[in-house]
Write a structure and sequence with these properties.
It is a single chain. This protein has one domain (2-13, 24-67, 105-242). It contains 9 helices and no strands. It has helices at 2-7, 25-50, 54-62, 114-123, 128-146, 153-177, 183-199, 204-209, 216-242.
Length: 243
């Protein structure tokens, strides 16, 4: 995916192929431990920014990919309704609100169109972490489908900013929750898959050119973090081969 981004001028200074040299077992372990430490530290920072305790944040991360279960429609309480709630025919009279209500219900289904995505992205997910969990719910296949025609410059910019801000922290929380089972590396792989899905959108090269220079620092930090993950993954793989 980095190679596609280079072609589209998203990461002009990144190498087209990354092949880390073989390193010793000690350096391999150090590379992975350093990456994991950074991921966990970032996770704790994300928890603070969400104003929740760390355990709550880890649970939010671990369930981000699950589709919410929508309960059947029911009355708000089981108490009898007051008499003025009924009309002359005995039916319940709906209360008319003087002000329109904005729905903030979390979507229980992945978007079917780009319009669905845009609406849910902006209305129901106000914070970067909310948006990141929404991306986890959607997954690469959904993004590839809804953005088959094109992805807008504004949404692409927002997605890149959300990925850069959140992926390492969410990966670190999952890593610690799972006891160091490589969850942070899997999070990096997920981000790469999302980027690959977005790069398949129609007229993607034109969209990238319209991003402007203000997005470049965000992309540099994002790709730098993913490169660190690639180094850690390569070191881990090499360590396993040597055993």
């Amino acid at each position: 995916v980095l190679e596609n981004m280079i072609t589209c001028e998203m990461a002009q200074e990144q190498p087209t192929q990354y092949r880390p040299a073989k390193i010793s077992k000690e350096l391999a372990n150090a590379a992975y431990d350093d990456f994991k430490r950074k991921a966990i530290d970032e996770a704790k920072k994300r928890a603070v920014s969400q104003r929740v305790d760390y355990d709550t944040f880890k649970n939010m991360v671990l369930t981000a990919h699950l589709k919410p279960i929508t309960a059947p429609s029911r009355r708000e309480n089981d108490r009898p309704s007051p008499c003025w709630s009924f009309g002359a025919d005995g039916r319940v009279v709906k209360q008319q609100s003087s002000q329109p209500q904005l729905s903030l219900v979390t979507p229980s289904e992945v978007p079917k169109t780009s319009g669905d995505f845009y609406r849910d992205w902006r209305r129901n997910h106000p914070t970067p972490d909310d948006k990141y969990r929404y991306l986890k719910l959607c997954g690469p296949d959904t993004l590839r489908a809804v953005f088959r025609v094109e992805v807008s410059t504004e949404v692409l910019r927002e997605v890149l900013c959300v990925l850069e801000a959140c992926w390492l922290g969410h990966g670190g929380a999952a890593e610690e929750a799972e006891g160091g089972a490589g969850a942070a590396l899997r999070e990096a792989a997920f981000v790469v898959q999302l980027l690959e899905a977005l790069s398949a959108a129609g007229r993607f090269p034109l969209t990238v050119k319209l991003l402007g220079s203000t997005c470049k620092p965000v992309m540099e930090r994002l790709f730098s973090g993913l490169e660190s993950a690639a180094t850690a993954a390569a070191a881990t793989s090499q360590d396993e081969e040597q055993q």
